Amino acid sequence: MNVRRLLKLLIYFVLFLLALIAGVLVKAAGNNEFLPLVVHLPNSTALPVLTPTPTITPTPGPLNTGEITRVSVATDGTAGNMRSGSSDISSDGRYVVFSSYATNLVPNDTNGAFDIFIHDKETLETSLVSVSSSGAQGGNDSTNPSISSDGRFVAFSSYAYNLVPDNWDIAPDVYVHDRETGETSRVSVSSDGVGGNDWSVLPSISVDGTLVAFASLSNNLVIDDDNGNWDIFVHDRLTQQTSLVSVSTGGVQGNAASINPAISGDGRYVTFQSFAGNLVSGDTNDRSDIFVHEILTGITQGVSVTSGGVTGNGHSVNHSISVDGRYVVFDSVSDDLVPGDFNEDYDIFVRDLVTEQTVLASVNSQGLQANDRSQDPFISEDGRFVAFSSWASNLIDSDTNQGFDIFVHDLLTAKTSIVSVSSEGLLGNSWSSEPSMDASGRYVTFSSWADNLVLDDTNLTTDVFVYDREE
């Protein structure tokens, strides 16, 4: 096994461990920063019917020539002076939220911590979101933002103790900031308003901002939470009710950790990653799987399964769900979800919960499977476009940068294109990750170490970019 392959295997192992930590902030060596993990909230409406194989085989073309913009900048356009990532975008593509360690994006940022910012692409204004109702800056790290459809509500997790009154614990909580009223409220609470007694992280907010799904180790959010594991909860900000959703159809709590929630736009469905073996019948693979729980009916079903309903034989980790809950995209190292999966690595799959079909999405425009790892999937509002990051070199012509790039696969035309490129079509010269899309799939956000995507990128750290695919 050559050195390059060993290096990649080591990297993959580290990335997988980070995914299992599910929101824990991992301290980066030597720079006093923290690397936040992210879960994205997709937005979607009417969706096309997927077929197991593409019906169109387009001819490969040149790299995209859309327009790319850096958005992890101050209102005057100054680039952030430290790391930015974990972005999400509003349905119309106007607002981008992200987490950043930068101290120069807004005046008087003196807390020395990751904060949540929002950038308005129309007015070019950047403002701080991780603040209390009185406007006080959070006193500790805030990460993993999730934005409502219109950009009014932003959910995030934070270690800050001063965002709401009477928050005495040292564990992170989940908050929602109302940009219209300025109010910040804690949502990792029980139905009677008592704050969680352990970690709560990784929020995912519905399109109207009413419902927030999150992962928590707390055992006091609902009655009889006695499994001692991470669970998935949904808090209704209108009724103030908190419910446990990482349960079987019969309401039995998962017997192992459940993490990484994503809520459908209408708030009816919640997908999550779980090691539990008792959520559905026949789950004997002893691996991390993806599940979906329908809140109205209480039905839980497996998502990381074949078109015949057989659970995949490998770990399935990252995922997102369409607004009506019909489509779930996820990454998996399973090699039995579709026929002919021979690359022995993580791939991107789309599960149609209506037709019960599972298809491979990390392919090039001729349908050839990616020749290396693909991860971080995100699906557009209409279910047509899937964005993901990949190390593969065969998804487009002339991909020679030997790193993770951001791709978009069109499930309707079967075309795959790259978006982590400059406005002139130049490949990024370093890794790109964490894609998100607006409702239509026109705007794709992502974070990148590349310094050649825009002019004068000299800050030597990760930035957040938006790529306009229609320019």
From TrEMBL:
Pfam families on file: PD40
Database matches in InterPro entries: 6-blade_b-propeller_TolB-like, WD40
Similarity comment: family membership: Belongs to the TolB family.
Record-linked PANTHER family: PROTEIN TOLB HOMOLOG, SLR0505 PROTEIN
Protein name, per record: WD40 domain protein beta Propeller
Organism: candidate division WWE3 bacterium GW2011_GWA1_41_8
